[in-house]
Amino acid sequence: MRNKSTRLSDVEALEKILRSDDALDPEIASHLQELAARLPLRELISLVERCNSVRAALILRLLPRHRSIAVFDALDFGQQADLIDELGNSEVFEFFDSLEPEDRVALLDELPAEIADRLLKSLKKPARDVTGVVLGYEKGSVGRRMSPEVPDIYPEMTAREALRQLRATARDLETIYTLPVVRTDRRLVGVLSFRELFQAPDDKPLGELMKEAVYTYASADAEETARWFLPLDILAIPVVDDSRRLVGLLTWDDATDIVEEADSEDTARSGGTEALNQPYMSTPLFKLVRLRIVWLLVLAVSALLTVQVLSVFEDTLAAAVVLSLFIPLLTGTGGNTGNQAATTVTRALALGDVRTKDLWAVLWRELRVGMLLGAALGALGLLLASLVFDLHLGIVIGATLFLVCSMSATVGGIMPLVAKKVGADPAVFSNPFISTFCDATGLIIYFFIAKAVLGI
Amino acid sequence: MRNKSTRLSDVEALEKILRSDDALDPEIASHLQELAARLPLRELISLVERCNSVRAALILRLLPRHRSIAVFDALDFGQQADLIDELGNSEVFEFFDSLEPEDRVALLDELPAEIADRLLKSLKKPARDVTGVVLGYEKGSVGRRMSPEVPDIYPEMTAREALRQLRATARDLETIYTLPVVRTDRRLVGVLSFRELFQAPDDKPLGELMKEAVYTYASADAEETARWFLPLDILAIPVVDDSRRLVGLLTWDDATDIVEEADSEDTARSGGTEALNQPYMSTPLFKLVRLRIVWLLVLAVSALLTVQVLSVFEDTLAAAVVLSLFIPLLTGTGGNTGNQAATTVTRALALGDVRTKDLWAVLWRELRVGMLLGAALGALGLLLASLVFDLHLGIVIGATLFLVCSMSATVGGIMPLVAKKVGADPAVFSNPFISTFCDATGLIIYFFIAKAVLGI
């Protein structure tokens, strides 16, 4: 976004110094410090995100404190947690203290219990109390990600009074742009955008200015709530307890964070792995292996099912070896059709466009889509296999493709909904599992049709 | 987020009326109108998102105009485009006029040229001009998604003057929370958050209050810029032309929109389909088929490669039918390993954590990860196949798994980077293509090892 030609060379120089394994002599250190001081914040963050924790800690230590705090604050919670080990106690405590209460809690969630405990104890009383409020809510709930610091705005105040008070207290608030209005018992009665307050006549009471509040419960699902920020075009949403008393605000930056994490997790899981929670280049190699090996083993073991299925039909295969030529094509196409449906429905579920009660409607849609796709592919398969081999094999391939596509689309479409219904993650049931399932079932369909048509 | 027990019945009643195919008699219409008026905006949006365009138009027509505008505004551009056909001209023109200029352009992009033209002509002169500015930038650029309406704030102004002017002009601005400061020639000299302005002493000149601006060029990539909102924690970013003159602001809601669209597209493509650009339940059946059939055909045709590979080894297969039993297991595991790597790297690319110049670093990382995964799976395969079949087959399976995993992880990791380098979409090369590639190559590896070890 800046003038790239001059800046890039700075970044490159920095990266080069950081790549070398030599110990840092004072001259290089001062050169590095000078370079890092010159870089815009954006590029500094990029740079740190691409370093392992030793190097990242080195850069943070070279920066003036206000800049290193800004960089640390911008990092993913996973990378922040990695850095804790590499930084000195005093730096860690200072960084931790500078975070918003809800960001502190998100970082604590990534850390081993004893370190989390030590960090919490390092906070001064008011900061510890306010962090404790957020910590008291369950993981995945709105309460766990909300900002507990809210303004004291009452319906009896006039616009001028409210503005004066906000001006005095704004420093302690995460946002002043969305203003929840409460009664003296903290019950939420309305909401006011700062912009409306700012443009209102001085003597207008807030009770006449405020609107009906769109609010959420502290116990509500964080992702579901966060997804509403976009269509409703809101910067923050008031959070209330079960008696509708105001307990915090969920702000747009935390909502965006929640959505990004959820999308990263869904993406990773539908690719058969787990989300990194930190930038790829900064992720240790063994963490990559660890995040993948479990899924890979589970999938490989479940793929033994296909070996089982095939060994049942070993005689058929021996009688017509030509059948084995089409195995990857048929299982692959089944997998692809299933993945298309699963991916589409999983995304729709994540965005809130489809709900579990839509199961039958989705089944009916995907069955029809699958049959149409299967008819097209089956016709093609019939034609090609008849031309290259013979009509009988053409019929086997064509019919199998039709049935496999119909089945895969249907199963792929409803599996994410079934997963959600039983409390599992829909994304997990997306691609790899559907593939394995469609492989085994597709093979059974294939051999039954082959036996019938070819008379083996 | 509201009291669910009372509201849900309203929604259910509405859905029931809307599901019935009967023509709407006046009594039902008035009942429907009453129900729709009672529903909170959030649930009304949800409801419309789940309807086909005929029903959605029906609901919009029953609502008071300010509510129908709010609902229309919240819909995806794809669904808005579908609705244009169903609504009357006067409604369409009114809805279109009520959108922000950049949202108008996003909707126009979804429409056939003649309808887009008619809509543009329906705007009054100032609105048409301001929309024209946005339309002048290329698709996918920041300019195409920015808000061209910016405040006139100069460094010589005092805080009091700036506040007074903002209060007078706020109605025409999309945001007042991020304030770009310009010289009289419109060159950007700094940026000021409203909050700082609000808390500043009355007589302080803006020149002393403003900070160095983080800005972007109108020609910059929209997704790349939008991804920066989260780490930098900003509500809007000033957009400048090549001479650094202020031309607009990219606001957080448009940035969030851009990121959501990009994520939906990536998710869809790695599942081998195209993004819907509208809620699943409102998507016509034939659109679902159309978005999937092309990919499915391309993948099926490329899977003919595996038929080709297997027919080369047909004699080997005939000599040892047992080899065919492991085909789906081996191709499946290769595909899974490749997908894991491709998914991880594609997401890292989307988030900006990995760049194309990291190709060699990624290759080296993924090769090592693949070898470690392959060693684990290969050892398991060796053991199981030796126990169930014999040692020779065990060696074939174990060695194949090791090589297939090493290759798949490496190829899966670098393919997204290669795709980006040649200007293709990394997500496209993610799952389905990698699977097909790994299938064919994996089979070749398998049969070469089998021929060598079993001496066929």
Précis, in short:
Chains A, B: It holds the Pfam family CBS. The structure is a homodimer of 456-residue chains. Chain A is mainly alpha-helical and 456 residues long.
SSE blueprint:
The structure is a homodimer of 456-residue chains.
Chain A: H1 4-19, H2 26-38, H3 41-49, H4 53-62, H5 65-74, H6 77-84, H7 89-98, H8 101-108, H9 113-122, H10 125-135, H11 159-169, E1 178-182, E2 188-193, H12 194-199, H13 206-209, E3 216-217, H14 222-226, H15 229-232, E4 236-240, E5 246-251, H16 252-270, H17 285-312, H18 314-319, H19 327-350, H20 359-388, H21 391-421, H22 431-454
Parallel strand pairs in A: 3-4
Antiparallel strand pairs in A: 1-2, 4-5
Task: Explain what you see.
2 copies of one chain form a homodimer. Chain A is mainly alpha-helical and 456 residues long. Chain A has 3 domains: 4-135, MgtE N-terminal domain-like (MgtE N-terminal fold); 159-259, CBS-domain (Roll); 294-454, Tetracycline Repressor, domain 2 (Orthogonal Bundle). In chain A, 65% of the residues lie in helices and 5% in strands. Chain A has 22 helices and 5 strands. Chain A has helices at 4-19, 26-38, 41-49, 53-62, 65-74, 77-84, 89-98, 101-108, 113-122, 125-135, 159-169, 194-199, 206-209, 222-226, 229-232, 252-270, 285-312, 314-319, 327-350, 359-388, 391-421, 431-454; strands at 178-182, 188-193, 216-217, 236-240, 246-251. Chain A has a 3-stranded mixed beta sheet. In chain A, strands 1-2 form a two-stranded antiparallel sheet. In chain A, strand 1 (178-182) and strand 2 (188-193) form a beta hairpin. Chain A is globular. Residues 1-6 of chain A have low confidence and may be disordered. At the A-B interface, helix 3, helix 12, strand 3, helix 15 and helix 16 of A face helix 3, helix 12, strand 3, helix 15 and helix 16 of B. Chains A, B: One of its GO terms (cellular component) is plasma membrane. Chains A, B: It is found in: Cell membrane; Membrane. Chains A, B: The chain crosses the membrane at residues 293-311, 317-337, 369-389, 395-419, 431-449. Chains A, B: This is Magnesium transporter MgtE. Chains A, B: Homodimer.
